[in-house]
Design brief:
ATP_syn_F0_a_bact/chloroplast; transmembrane helix; membrane
Length: 287
């Protein structure tokens, strides 16, 4: 499980596994010309897997007693639809938002689930395919901040879209300068309150977007690190004659954490979906 750990120190092993496969060498911390190719590729592949599985479920759907796969898909669709109805009261908007929420939930779950693969499995296969034993590859897109912030930014843009669609440009603009503190009949106080309200609205939008993406990223990044530490335990066992119990501890620790992590990846996908519905529901509300 930790093939490279034998030839590297613990810190070198972890640093190597935290590096992305990128289009160019990153020159600074913030460099928008850099693309994490591994995150993009895995996300697209898992998106295609999601579409194929649900197409297969729809194609084989029957009106009689459903099979296990159809029943699981129907339960998932019903769960998401109920949450959409509870947060989005506009039936027309739900025609797009409910399928969007389902896509968000399943897609993020699949991306999170990549963390359950052995740490070195895909990186070693990639190194063998490229012939480069130092090639980088990270396989958990949601442990990449650019992925999670990209998703949360897309939700923010949808909030803007529905705010304008439901309230109109004038109505939304009026809300931006009158909520949450209201306005005043005094022109000077009205201007001051308008600036303060607008500033508070900007802070709220930024805070919601950043926390939306950071919550998912933080949990998945931490889970990824734990799996790396467990993998290092296996590497230490292979190198140490005295550590006869480490292989057993490695297997037990890895199994326990993997079982617990199934709950984490499901919960994080559900939380991201729920926050998406809540934020889009707020965009439909008038203040």
């Amino acid at each position: 499980m930790a093939a490279d750990a034998n030839a590297q120190t613990a810190s070198e092993y972890i640093v190597h596994h935290l590096q992305h496969l990128q289009n160019i060498k990153q020159k600074s911390i913030i460099d928008f010309s850099v693309v994490n190719l591994d995150s993009v590729a895995v996300s697209v592949i898992l998106g295609a897997v999601f579409l194929f599985l649900f197409w297969l479920a729809a194609r084989k759907a029957t009106s009689g007693v459903p099979g296990r796969f159809q029943a699981a898909v129907e339960m998932m669709v019903e769960m998401v639809d109920n949450q959409a109805k509870a947060n989005i009261h506009n039936a027309q908007s739900r025609k797009f938002i409910a399928p969007l929420a389902l896509t968000v939930f399943v897609w993020i779950f699949l991306m999170n689930a990549m963390d359950l693969l052995p740490v070195d499995l895909l990186p070693v296969l990639w190194q063998g395919a490229t012939g480069d034993h130092h090639a980088y590859l990270r396989v958990v897109p949601t442990a990449d901040l650019s992925t999670t912030l990209g998703l949360s930014t897309a939700v923010l843009l949808l909030c803007f879209y529905y705010s304008v669609k439901i309230k109109g440009v004038g109505g939304w603009a009026h809300e931006l300068v009158t909520a949450p503190f209201g306005t005043s009949k005094n022109p000077i106080f009205a201007v001051i309150l308008g600036v303060v309200n607008l500033l508070m609205q900007v802070i709220e939008y930024v805070a919601k977007t950043v926390s939306h993406g950071m919550r998912l990223f933080g949990n998945m990044y931490a889970g990824e690190l734990v799996f790396m530490l467990i993998a290092l335990m296996g590497g230490a066992a292979a190198m140490s004659l005295s550590g006869v119990l480490l292989p057993l501890g490695h297997i037990i620790a890895g199994s326990i954490w993997a079982i617990f992590h199934i709950l984490i990846i499901t919960l994080q996908a559900f939380i991201f979906m729920m926050l998406t519905l809540i934020y889009l529901g707020q965009a439909h509300e008038h203040h």
